[in-house]
Design a protein that fits this description.
Elements (H helix, E strand, L loop, with lengths): L1 H19 L9 E3 L6 H18 L2 E7 L6 H13 L5 E7 L4 E7 L2 H4 L2 H16 L3 H18 L6 E4 L5 E3 L5 H26 L10 H4 L35 E6 L2 E9 L1
Parallel strand pairs: 1-2, 2-3, 5-7
Antiparallel strand pairs: 3-4, 4-8, 5-6, 7-8
Helix pairs in contact: 2-6, 5-6
InterPro entries: TPM_dom
Pfam family, one: TPM_phosphatase
Protein name: TPM domain-containing protein
């Protein structure tokens, strides 16, 4: 009986110690290795991420760490690649508590949604909360602002700039109003053309025969084209200036591990 009591007391003590230990929360969206967020904050992040993921047809994450020994850019790029693969849609916010760095890495369509200036705006908001040690609010601001920019869509005149080569790739983004106007004009033009052709060429009698012999005419001529001179004009296209604020502009990209990534960061 004494042994049983001792065993029960020992098991009770183990249970108490186990449930008293801090638990670092993890989810498909939140990898909080440091334990910066509350359960309520993580639930809110998961809910917002679920809505964002459906919109972008990809995934968005946040990760906290004190064990990173490489650059925040490399860590974030590798983390995102491991989660979604190269050039697939996604974004991750890294909170590196050992190096005191914030970094956002983007891939796929998130490179276009989160332009350089939009990332700067998100980093401003995250930075303000990090220096005040409001870590949950910092991550929630990231999700909230990313969702807002995705709702606004890719800004007009958007382009990507390759950081290594300076190559510029421009994207034409049609707004909903522009699409509606284009479809309306196309339908009106097609309808008018159909009515015009039908009214002009509709035959009144099925016995009508076109007198092609009397009305046809054929004349063959000899024509020769000769290239005299050709000219090639080249010019250097300057790198566009960096945009600040406004949420528009371009996205600076770089290559890493066979994939293309955007992003940016800062110390706190």
């Amino acid at each position: 009986m004494s042994f049983r009591k001792s065993l029960s007391a020992f098991l009770l003590l183990l249970s108490f110690l186990f449930f008293s230990l801090p638990v670092h929360a993890a989810s498909p969206t939140v990898n909080d290795e440091v334990g910066l967020f509350t359960a309520e904050e993580i639930n809110a992040m998961n809910q917002m991420a679920s809505e964002i993921n459906q919109e972008i047809k990809g995934e968005i994450f946040v990760v906290t760490t004190t064990k990173n020994s490489e650059s925040p850019e490399n860590f974030a790029d590798n983390y995102l690649r491991d989660r979604v693969g190269n050039d697939n849609n996604g974004a991750v916010l890294l909170l590196d508590m050992s190096q005191r760095e914030i970094y956002i890495s983007t891939s796929g369509n998130m490179i276009d949604y989160l332009t350089d200036s939009r990332i700067d705006s998100i980093l401003d908001s995250v930075y303000d909360q990090m220096v005040d040690e409001n870590y949950g609010a910092a991550a929630l601001n990231y999700f909230t602002m990313a969702q807002d920019y995705i709702t606004k869509g890719v800004p007009g005149g958007h382009y990507r700039v390759d950081r290594e080569t300076g190559k510029i790739t421009r994207y034409k983004v049609l707004t909903g109003f522009e699409i509606f106007i284009a479809l309306t004009i196309a339908l009106i033009s097609a309808g008018a053309f159909f009515i015009f052709i039908k009214s002009r060429y509709q035959l009144k009698s099925g016995t009508y025969t076109y007198p092609f012999k009397e009305k046809s005419n054929l004349k063959l001529v000899s024509k020769e084209d000769r290239l005299v001179n050709s000219f090639v004009t080249t010019r250097r296209i300057p790198k566009p200036p960096t945009n600040s604020g406004g949420g528009g502009g371009g996205s600076t990209t770089h290559s890493s591990g066979g994939g293309t990534f955007g992003g940016g960061g800062r110390s706190f």
